[in-house]
């Protein structure tokens, strides 16, 4: 009954696909955010569902933690094995199993990344729209209930996962959902697993909804006199019912990051990056309607990207935000906030965030999937500077409190992981957390699936267990 | 520890809002489908969340079953108290608590019906789109994961419930979700409760997503030479990406029902009922594109309904399908099937259903939310005629098997209730059912919330427990 005995039992099954080299342990114990290194005891590379099932059965018997690993691009330390055990690297389970073009769905393995999937789909005229900045694994995206720039039109992973194959804590394999577009057949285990961050089961197969390439697409950037004008333009646009495909806020600091990191020369002002999709006439109509609203809020300098390569370049720049952020103060890490509020509260939320970051002397960018009411402050932080860490943590906590006060959530898309566990007790009542704990205990009684994540311990001092 | 002792304990709290009159018991123990009368021991009319909480606490202590009751329009006997106990009639908790027009959401109590809500919203320019045929309570709609004609555009209750207040089995009150459009803050308890049919908690408050009234709307009926032509027109339309607001199949028998019940004179042929929404130019473009596809499949006799009153009449007719069905063979009841398949399989599914119903000499209509791959056979049945019941049950079972073979589900929107419990073990593996049972046991350890529904008993003979 130990991690060591579990690894001994796993060795004959996985041979050299069970690794304990220092480099591999470190690769799987590090993260893109500010969390401390947390090493697994071994990294295992399964190739089949049966192997994941065998591994879970053995680890459950031995009480050995198992943490799934996709691409390691999580921003809240989800994949860090803080209690040791196995880092289950899903990168070899990365096949497209079935493309059902007529039904606009696809069956894939979870180690596949979103960009890899879209390359595979290229010949079909279909694509998978959900796009967090990173080229994340689709398993990781499901596990964190990820979204990105297109959620305003297509929803999040919650809306785009039709079915799952999941290995439970004791090795049993279940299927949830189906290829039908809707069902009322029992509890929605698909939606329970999506966003459960590897704490309720290991996803080994996913059926995803696809979208057809639109007849016409047009994208643009435009700048605004102030961030408040930009946000008010977004609010009016959404309330007008213009079916935006994308509507992204980029503040002047983020523009500076793009200019530095990607050798751009955009004016260092607040911008909106927008995209319209539909028929040629529909796109023209939407663009004109949006243009009129933007003008009302002082929008200017419209730069249109109609050719695919220009649009790709525009969104490549936007998706590079995390890395462009690093260019602003090289050597530091990023602590990214992720609040999401009702759209009517967005101007207050964004302007408060900008004002408080300045008052607290925090270098941060503000970018957001503002059509959903979701935005991020990418705060530059030196993990070794305790005072700075405390100041930024205070700022992040203030934003979380504000989001809850405004009727929103502490995390729109990044998930809880380690970093936001301290807010769980603010967003959810003790009884709601206990309901989540009861479900966790029912499905993982030995607490081996990504232990130490999402749910703070069930007592008033629970917050102290959070990462920082 | 009995139902009687629970009722004794509840009496002082509810006074004459706890009723045991024969008429009320019967009203709450009957149903619109073919299931036998199942009487509660008492009907209770709560007025506040606190009262529901008090009631659950007491019933949990006494082991007394509690079954929520909305409008009683369920088609699978969800609300029948098959183990007696309390029928919790939510009709007095029917207020609109908060209209957030700027955020396009509304907070309501679960006893409110969808039509009542839309009357309340009239002045705002907003509406709630989900529309099962019946004027159901919104609590019941959430509990069964209902949908209807507009799901092809706006999704089901799963997609339109943002947040819930739920009373758990032991009386604790939790809130799930928020008014933010998305969140990654822990397990998705909202989606777990939606579709749980009152077996995991009692919904006492709902926050719902609203839609803006579109600038332009146009609806039409057109007829086809055969049901196969109509379905193939649907498949092509969906695959072409035309953003249909509604696309409904109505077979010749259903048209006969409309003609009889509503004094119409539609040609008795397979029809599609369609609706387009958007800008004026967009609607014109969509209509033209659909018209061209329909023509390819022999569609003719287009009748356009552009005025609101004409459209309302069209959809009132469609929503009257259940009652029009009764007009075909008065005195009988309806057993409605509800399979949903991937769209590419729809022609096979519908034509097989029509052929088999004729081979088995079953009088049935076929209607469907075919843009989702979902259709219903409304089979006329005399519950006293054992041979007829057996024949129709066999037919329904064949359709369920077919749906699963084609990658679909045994219920697209009606839910499991009593009637489809026997298919749960076909759609879900024993391990998946056990996962659902574990969740049920974790949240309702005394099995007092709508016992005897959704989950068949955990042994191979479990199907025998189903209603028939």
Describe this structure in words.
The structure is a homodimer of 468-residue chains. The first copy, chain A, is built from 17 helices and 18 strands. Chain A is α+β, with helices and mostly antiparallel strands and 468 residues long. Chain A has four domains: 89 residues, Uridine Diphospho-n-acetylenolpyruvylglucosamine Reductase, domain 2, CATH 3.30.43.10; 120 residues, Uridine Diphospho-n-acetylenolpyruvylglucosamine Reductase, domain 3, CATH 3.30.465.10; 186 residues, FAD-linked oxidases, C-terminal domain (Vanillyl-alcohol Oxidase, Chain A, domain 3); 45 residues. In chain A, helix 9 packs antiparallel against helix 14, helix 10 crosses helix 13 and helix 14 packs antiparallel against helix 15. Chain A starts with a helix and ends in a 25-residue tail after the last helix. In chain A, 58% of the residues are buried. The interface between A and B is large, with 90 and 90 residues. Chains A, B: It is an enzyme of class 1 (oxidoreductase). Chains A, B: Its cofactor is FAD. Chains A, B: Keywords: FAD, Flavoprotein, Oxidoreductase, Transit peptide.
């Amino acid at each position: 009954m130990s991690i060591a005995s579990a690894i001994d039992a796993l060795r004959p099954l996985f041979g050299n696909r069970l690794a304990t080299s220092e480099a591999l342990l470190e690769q799987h114990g590090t993260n893109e955010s500010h969390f401390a290194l947390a090493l697994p005891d071994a990294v295992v590379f399964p190739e089949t569902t049966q192997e994941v099932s065998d591994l879970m059965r053995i680890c459950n018997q031995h009480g050995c933690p198992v943490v799934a690993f996709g691409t390691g691009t999580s921003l809240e330390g989800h994949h860090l094995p803080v209690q040791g055990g196995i880092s289950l690297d899903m990168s070899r389970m990365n096949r497209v199993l079935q493309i059902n073009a007529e039904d606009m769905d696809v069956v894939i393995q979870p180690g596949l990344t979103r960009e890899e999937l879209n390359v595979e789909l290229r010949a079909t005229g279909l694509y998978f729209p959900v796009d967090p900045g990173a080229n994340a694994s689709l398993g990781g995206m499901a596990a964190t209930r990820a979204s990105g720039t297109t959620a305003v039109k297509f929803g999040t992973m919650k809306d785009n996962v039709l079915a799952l194959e999941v290995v439970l804590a004791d090795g049993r394999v279940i299927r949830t959902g189906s290829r039908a577009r809707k069902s009322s057949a029992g509890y929605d285990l698909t939606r329970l697993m999506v966003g459960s961050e590897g704490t309720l089961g290991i996803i080994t197969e996913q059926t995803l909804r696809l979208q057809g390439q639109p007849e016409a697409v047009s994208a643009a950037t435009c700048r605004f006199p102030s961030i408040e004008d930009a946000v008010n333009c977004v609010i009016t646009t959404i309330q007008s019912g213009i079916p935006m495909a994308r509507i992204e806020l980029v503040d002047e600091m983020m523009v500076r990051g793009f200019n530095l990191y990607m050798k751009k020369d955009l004016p260092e002002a607040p911008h909106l990056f927008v995209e319209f999709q539909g028929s040629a006439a529909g796109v023209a109509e939407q663009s004109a309607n949006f243009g009129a609203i933007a003008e009302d809020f002082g929008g200017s300098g419209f730069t249109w990207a109609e050719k695919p390569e220009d649009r790709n370049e525009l969104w490549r720049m936007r998706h590079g935000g995390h890395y462009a952020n690093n260019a602003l103060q090289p050597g530091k890490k990023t602590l990214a906030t992720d609040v999401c509020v009702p759209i009517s509260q967005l101007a207050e939320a964004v302007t408060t965030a900008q004002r408080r970051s300045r008052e607290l002397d925090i270098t941060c960018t503000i970018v957001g999937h503002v059509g959903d009411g979701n935005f991020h402050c990418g705060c530059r932080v030196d993990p070794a500077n305790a005072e700075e860490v405390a100041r930024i943590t205070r700022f992040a906590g203030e934003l979380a409190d504000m989001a809850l006060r405004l009727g929103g959530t502490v995390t729109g898309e990044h998930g809880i992981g380690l970093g936001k566990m301290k807010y769980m007790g603010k967003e959810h009542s003790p009884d709601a957390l206990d309901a989540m704990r009861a479900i966790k205990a029912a499905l993982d009684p030995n607490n081996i699936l990504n232990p130490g994540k999402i749910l703070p311990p069930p007592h008033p001092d629970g917050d102290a267990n959070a990462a920082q």
